[in-house]
Specification:
The chain is an alpha/beta fold. It folds into two domains: about 160 residues, no CATH class; about 160 residues, P-loop containing nucleotide triphosphate hydrolases (Rossmann fold, 3-Layer(aba) Sandwich). The protein has twelve helices and 14 strands. The strands form four sheets. The chain has a six-stranded parallel sheet, with helices on both faces. A three-stranded antiparallel sheet has the order 2-3-4. Strand 2 and strand 3 form a beta hairpin. The longest helix has 24 residues. The radius of gyration is 21 Å and the shape is globular. The protein starts with 17 loop residues before the first strand and ends with a strand.
C-alpha cells in the first residue's frame, strides 16, 4: 500500500490463514485496501468490456457505486485532501498451473497494482507483471464482521443488496437472507443439513430450514432449544449467531477469500476455537483463503502454526505468547 489512508510503502505478507493483530488502524485498512483493489480490477474489467458507444456516453459502471462506498466516505481513503495525491494498492499472487502430462504443476507468480486518483476509484493499472489483466479472474471477496443483533423483521432481498450490506459491515441485517441463499444453492439441502449438524453439536440446539413468507415479505428462521421449545432466531445467543453467520459465508464463498474484521470479538475461548476448526475445514475442503483481524490468543496461535501472524510491532503481542516464542515467527509490517 502506497498512500492508502496515510500508510506509505507498507508491505503485508498474505498466506492462508493470515491473522492481523495489534492496537493499530492498519488491520482494518488492509481489509479495506483489498476490497478497493478488487473494485479497481472489477472496474478495469468492465471498462475493457464496454462498447465504444458506452464509453463515449459515459455509461460504463461508476466505480464508486461498484465499491458501494459513498463518495464523501471514499474520499477519506486518500492521504491528503489538499493536494489530492493518488494512492496505490498492489497485490502479488501465485497461481498453480498444470504442466505437460506426467509433469508436476508449477507455481506462476504475478503482480497487479492499481493507482487511484483523488476522489475516484477509476483505477489505472500499475506494477503489472507475470500476467495479462484480462487473464486475472476477479477474486471472490466476502467481508464480514461480528454479529451484534438481528432485526425483528427481515424481508427477502436480492443477492446484490445482501452483498451491499456485507460490504458495509451490516451482516446482522441480512443473516436470514444468507440462510435462504444457502438453502437455494444447487446442493442447498445438504449444505443446510451440515450447518444444522454443526450448530447442534456446538450449541445443543437444532436449527430449522428458513422459510419465506410472501406477504408481507419476511424470512422466518427458527430453532428448537434444549427443551424442545421452538424459538425465533432473534432470541439466540451471540455465539450461535456468529457461528451461523460464519457457516453460511463459508458455504456461499467456496474457494473465495473471507475478509473478517475481528470475528472473535466478545466470544468465549471455546467458541473461538470452534470457529478456528471451521476455518481449517473451509481451507481444507474448499480452498478458501482466510484473512482476518483478531485479538484473541487462540487466533494468534493458529496463525503462527498454520499461516502467518502479522503485527505492527513485537510489543503488540501478549507477553505470554512472546514467552512461548511467538514473536520469532510473527511478521511485522515494514514501512
Amino acid at each position: 500500500m502506497e498512500g492508502f489512508k496515510g500508510l506509505n510503502d507498507v508491505t503485508v505478507p498474505l498466506r492462508n490463514p493470515t491473522v492481523l493483530t495489534g492496537e493499530f488502524e492498519g488491520k482494518t485498512s488492509l481489509l479495506q485496501a483489498l476490497m478497493v483493489w478488487r473494485n479497481g480490477l472489477a472496474h478495469w474489467d468492465r471498462w475493457n468490456q464496454a462498447s465504444a458507444h458506452e464509453k463515449d456516453e459515459d455509461r460504463a459502471v461508476d466505480p464508486l457505486k461498484e465499491a458501494r462506498v459513498p463518495p464523501r466516505i471514499a474520499n477519506m481513503f486518500w492521504p491528503d485532501e489538499q493536494t489530492g495525491s493518488p494512492f496505490r494498492v498492489t497485490v502479488e499472487g501465485c497461481t498453480a498451473t498444470s504442466g505437460a502430462p506426467g509433469e508436476h504443476p508449477s507455481d506462476h507468480h504475478w503482480s497487479c497494482g492499481f493507482e487511484f486518483p483523488y476522489a475516484s476509484l477509476d483505477a489505472e493499472p500499475v506494477n503489472v507483471s507475470g500476467i495479462e489483466l484480462g487473464a486475472l479472474s476477479l477474486p471472490q471477496f466476502s467481508p464480514a464482521g461480528p454479529i451484534s443483533g438481528l432485526a425483528v423483521h427481515e424481508p427477502l432481498i436480492e443477492q446484490a443488496a445482501v452483498k451491499g450490506f456485507l460490504d458495509q459491515g451490516h451482516g446482522s441485517a441480512v443473516l436470514r437472507n444468507l440462510c435462504m441463499q444457502v438453502l437455494e444453492m444447487p446442493d442447498g439441502s445438504n449444505a443446510w443439513e451440515e450447518i444444522a449438524d454443526h450448530i447442534e453439536r456446538w450449541h445443543q440446539v437444532r436449527i430449522e430450514e428458513p422459510m419465506h413468507i410472501v406477504d408481507p415479505s419476511t424470512i422466518i428462521c427458527c430453532y428448537q432449544d434444549q427443551l424442545g421449545v421452538r424459538r425465533e432466531l432473534i432470541t439466540a445467543s451471540r455465539g450461535l449467531l456468529q457461528t451461523l453467520n460464519l457457516l453460511c459465508l463459508i458455504e456461499l464463498n467456496r474457494g473465495g477469500t473471507l475478509l473478517l474484521d475481528t470475528p472473535d470479538a466478545g466470544l468465549s475461548r471455546s467458541t473461538v476455537q470452534q470457529h478456528i476448526n471451521l476455518y481449517r475445514y473451509a481451507i481444507r475442503s474448499y480452498g478458501t483463503q482466510i484473512i482476518t483481524a483478531a485479538h484473541s490468543d487462540p487466533m494468534m496461535l493458529w496463525a503462527s502454526s498454520d499461516g502467518v501472524l502479522v503485527a505492527h510491532r513485537e510489543s503488540d503481542l501478549p507477553q505470554k505468547l512472546l514467552d512461548e516464542g511467538l514473536g520469532e515467527t510473527a511478521r511485522y509490517i515494514s514501512k
